Amino acid sequence: MAKRKTERYPVQGPNSLWQMYKTVSFWKVVKCFIVVQLARYIPWLPLKNWMYRTFLGMRIGENTAVALMVMIDTMFPERISIGSNTIIGYNTTILAHEYLIDEYRLGNVKIGSGVMIGANSTILPGVTIGDGAVVSAATLVNQDVPPGAFVGGNPMRIIRQP
């Protein structure tokens, strides 16, 4: 499994989260937060996907189902792409950023087509999940997932590969 692909940005002074509005516009965060919170509760999938594409700049394929309560990154959602016919399970979190004490990191999240992500999973920035992969519920996806693999756990491990 490949390591996560993130860009690292060192900061001086207070921790990077304290300085977040130096890295992303306050108004962008407000807009993204409102759209994400509305989409978390909308049960009509075509409307939800349209909102993600139109207001957040995400790339989402046809017939992809993002379940209720999924938390999309509220600062850099445009760095997330999801293929066609994929399911993102209930209450999953997809992050494209991470703020640490001395730096922040950004990374694209690429989720392939025909992927199944179980409920309550967390996908970290810089991760690629290959086509046809299955991610077990409550998994911390901290590395790339090969196409067709079945992964699970915290930390994530490969359970089965084609």
From TrEMBL:
This is Acetyltransferase (Isoleucine patch superfamily). The keyword Transcription regulation does not apply. It comes from the Bacteria. Keywords: Acyltransferase, Transferase. The keyword Cell membrane does not apply. GO terms for molecular function: acyltransferase activity. Pfam families: Hexapep.
